[in-house]
Each structure stands twice: as C-alpha cells, then as structure tokens.
Write a structure and sequence with these properties.
globular; 5-stranded parallel sheet; alpha/beta; single chain; about 170 residues
C-alpha cells in the first residue's frame, strides 16, 4: 500500500479546497496533504467530513486563517509568532479530529519586519541568528507540548542548512 500523499498545492489554478478535493476524489486519490495557498473555509470540518475515505496529513499553513499572513515561528514580532502558533494548534486539533497521521511545519524567517505573502526577502534587515533561533526553539517547545497532549505526530521540514543551530545556548522561560 502506497504512503504517497498528493498535496493540495499540486492542483494549480484554484485555491478552493472543495474543488480540489472533488477532483482528487473523482480520480481516486485517497491520500491528501492539506497545505497553504488555499482560500479561507468557513466550515472546514464539515467539508473534510464529506470525504470519509480520504486520509489527510497537514502541512504548515493550514487551515488557512480568515486574514492571510506569512507564518513565521521565529518572528521578532510576538503577535506574528503567536498567530503562527495558533495556525499550528488549529492544524493539530484537526489532525486529532480526523485521525491525520502527521502535522509538519517549516522553520521561521530571520527578518526584522513582517514579510509580505510573496516571501520576498530582498532588502529585508535580518535579526541576529541566535535571537531568531531562540524564538523558534520556544515555538518548537510549545508545538511539541501541544502535539503530545493531542497525540499528534509532528515533523519539522528543513528549508536550508542555516535554519538549524545548536540551541543549547538558548534560555527559556
């Protein structure tokens, strides 16, 4: 039995999850990775419940928030970091409710200000590496604790080699 999941980001031209799931269902795709790039969905649990034979996993920026923003678990702006953690927690709650086998997420960005939704890093002032890694480590601790309390496996997707640093030098409250 195949463990290959097809991402909702594979079907270009629409951000409508209902349409994507209809196409996937019509083609017998039963393993779906729910991820970013989708429109806000009012009754997400109801929609996912229409596909009882589908196995879902969730990746990063899902479920889409009502007001889009760039998720950043290492954000200098504490409000952005908290909003990012809220996305992760909603995802893990969905994982628990629908028996998803995994929630995976990206590390954060070392930018001084909030990024636009286009991920344009040019001309952005970078925050000190250690400070960003320490904020990200606090986020990981919170995500890990929440995941354990929900019985949801989590995975961290590496984006580039500089996203990992020895965090033993960080202190946590």
């Amino acid at each position: 039995m195949s463990e290959i999941y097809i991402s909702t980001s594979c079907l270009k031209g629409t951000g409508n999850l209902r349409k994507i799931l209809e196409v996937y269902s019509a083609h017998g795709i039963e393993k779906v990775e729910l991820t970013g790039g989708l429109e806000y969905i009012q009754n997400l649990a109801g929609l996912l419940g229409h596909y009882p034979g589908t196995n879902f996993i969730i990746h990063n920026y899902f479920p889409p928030p009502r007001e889009p923003f760039l998720m950043n678990l290492a954000a200098k702006d504490e409000r952005v970091r908290e909003k990012s953690l809220a996305v992760c927690k909603r995802a893990m709650d969905l994982c628990r409710r629908f028996g998803c086998g995994l929630y995976s997420f990206h590390p954060g960005f070392r930018v001084e200000s909030t990024l636009g939704l286009n991920f344009d890093l040019s001309g952005r002032k970078l925050v000190p590496y250690r400070a960003a890694v320490c904020r990200f480590a606090r986020s990981i601790e919170e995500i890990s604790a929440y995941a354990r309390s929900r019985g949801v496996p989590v995975a961290l997707e590496n984006l580039e080699h500089k996203n990992v640093q020895d965090i033993r030098t960080c202190t946590f409250n």
